[in-house]
Amino acid sequence: GEKIATIKGNTKDVEIVVSTEMEGSVRVGIKPEDIILSRTSLECSARNILEGTIIGMEENSAGYKIVVNIGIPLIVTVTRRSVNALGFQLGDSIFVVFKAMSVIVV
């Protein structure tokens, strides 16, 4: 079922919705390609919509690796076309969006 996972961050704790039957202390991960970036908060089926700040951008052969600080750093991969179309830049306030089912719990 759906549960809230609290992740201890450097500046604040981050709560995300996960789909698991596990209890207690766990590790969580999200594939960078499973995270959507948006300039605005979305009304959608994804259970996790968190505001953050772009703190790193690195161009590579596949597009861009973008690091977003939501209290913890999340690595997101996006295409060049998306970066150019949305004009992402260091320091931008942005929303990360991902489904509870995309969170890997171990």
Explain what you see.
The chain is built from one helix and nine strands. It is mainly beta and 106 residues long. The strands form three sheets. The chain has a five-stranded antiparallel beta sheet with strand order 4-8-5-6-7. The chain has a two-stranded antiparallel ribbon with strand order 1-2. Strands 3-9 form a two-stranded antiparallel sheet. The protein is globular. The two termini are 15 Å apart. The mean pLDDT is 96.
Summarize this structure briefly:
This protein is mainly β and 106 residues long. It contains 1 helix and 9 strands. The protein has one helix at 80-86; strands spanning 2-7, 14-19, 28-30, 36-38, 48-60, 63-69, 73-78, 93-98, 103-105.
Features:
five-stranded antiparallel β-sheet, two-stranded antiparallel ribbon, globular, 50% strand, 106 residues, mainly beta, 1 helix
Give start-end ranges of low-pLDDT stretches. Answer: none
Sheet with most strands: strand arrangement = 4-8-5-6-7
Summing up helix and strand content along with how strands pair, one would put the structural category as mainly beta
Overall pLDDT? 96
Distance between the termini: 15 Å
